[in-house]
Amino acid sequence: MSLLVKNVRLMDPAQGLDGPGALLVVEGAVAAIGADAERDALAVGAEVMDGGGAVLAPGFVDLHVHFREPGQTRKESIETGSRAAVAGGFTAVCAMANTKPVNDSVAITELMLTRAAKADLCRYFPIGTVSREMKGEELSDMGTLKAAGCVAFSDDGLPIMNASLMRRALEYTRWLEVPVVAHEEDQTLAGKGYMHEGAVSASLGCLGIPAAAEEAMVARDIILAEHTGGHLHLAHLSTKGSMRLVREAKARGLHVTCEVTPHHFALSDKELMKFDSDYKMNPPLRSEADIQAVLEALADGTVDAIATDHAPHGWDDKEVELPIAAFGVIGLETALPLTLELLVNRKVISLARAFDLLAAGPARVFHLDKQGLGSLKPGARADFVLFDPDAKVQVDRAFIQSRSFNTPFKGWSLPGKVLGTWVGGKRVWG
Ligand SMILES: NC(=O)N[C@@H](CC(=O)O)C(=O)O
Ligand SMILES: [Zn+2]
Ligand SMILES: [Zn+2]
């Protein structure tokens, strides 16, 4: 099977590509790009598709999603989550381990992979827990889990308060060549807080989570990464101090990588004045100064990836008083539009840097580039997205493919319409 997509604006920062061109897919892999593609397509008798001048880019790689299967498929299943992914232009997702039961065994990893293969939409990479039963006490069988298909290890949802456990997990990352993904939150500082601690929480009389709850743990784990030489990947960073700590760690040559989410660069803690639980997530929406620091870190290379932390919850988890509502928001369908509107159109970053943050960067962090993800180099997997960067989307229930609708972007009109998504050369969306 072969396919030529012609008349597109080809973007692939990994190859320094940005210009009119074409892409030829043969047997699920990129066979040729540019002028060669049209010539070679004739030789193989490829099916021809006209891209109508839209942008063709490498499929996005999300390092951080919660698909709730097994255990809570009323919120999301691997199939509905995968559909939300491809609708948003994501061709690969890395799924967190805080399912029910948690992914601390080969049986759960295999179940997840079986369900993902059945859904047959995006590529699905399980993340194993760092600790058995996510209790934060003993290490899980990281080696066995990696052999079963886990690409990273995380107790996300919960911080690893036990420094000795984190130290040992980081030691294992060296020979397993996989990162530990840290949810940084000192529970003794966060307490029962449910929004950012600052002027807004004080005026509302809400319990706050200080920036220091995140930063104290980021600092601890950077020290442990240095001590062990392990690979520390910091999930959903949200504060100015975290950005500074990561910038320093990278300048000192440590193996420290990080991601930020669209909701943390799009929204501030002022949104909580609406007392709407769709603005409640962990880490919480931060101050304007934190957002500025995140934008600078996106621009200067401190941040490796934009990840969604897609965290579906049912209306019954959310339609309750703010202090008891579930933490988390969905994000797969809105990530590209928010990146285009708030980062590219406002000239915080270039379009090429946006794709580095959505595709090549995350692929590198979890070593998925070695499997041909994150770029459109000849020989790479034919995972790509075709989208119109100017056409508007309306964030309503029909637009969202996820089983849940806990998005703070309800009613927003944003640029960036995904026209089609291909995984291994097969059209899975549009
Ligand atoms: N981000 C959230 O607010 N919630 C996540 C857990 C997490 O990412 O820490 C969830 O699983 O719902
Ligand atoms: Zn988390
Ligand atoms: Zn998460």
Automatic annotation (TrEMBL):
InterPro entries: Amidohydro_3, DHOase, DHOase/Allantoinase_Hydrolase, DHOase_cat, Dihydroorotase_CS, Metal-dep_hydrolase_composite, Metal_Hydrolase. The active site is at residue 309. Its cofactor is Zn(2+). Its EC number is 3.5.2.3. Substrate binds at residues 66-68, 98, 282, 313, 327-328. Zn(2+) 1 binds at residues 64, 66, 156, 309. Pathway: Pyrimidine metabolism; UMP biosynthesis via de novo pathway; (S)-dihydroorotate from bicarbonate: step 3/3. Belongs to the metallo-dependent hydrolases superfamily. DHOase family. Class I DHOase subfamily. HAMAP family: PyrC_classI_B (MF_00220_B). This is Dihydroorotase. The gene is pyrC.
